[in-house]
Amino acid sequence: MKRLLNLFWYELKYAFRGIRKHLLLTLSAISAMAVSTLLIGCFLLIGLHVDHFATNVEQDMSVHVVLDSEVSDDDQIDAVEKEIQKLSNVASVRFSSKDEELELMIQEKGEAFSLYRGEENPLSHAFFVEVKDSSAIEKTAASIEKIDGVSSVAYGGSSVTRLVDLLDMVRKIGYGVAVLLLILSLYLIYNTIRTTIYSRQDEIKIMRTVGATNAFIRIPFEVQGILIGLIGALIPFLLIFFGYPVVYEQMDGVLFASVFSLVSVTQVRWLLGLAMLGCGLVIGILASLLAVGKSLKAKR
Question: Residue ranges of the FtsX extracellular domain (predicted)?
Answer without folding.
Answer: 62-153
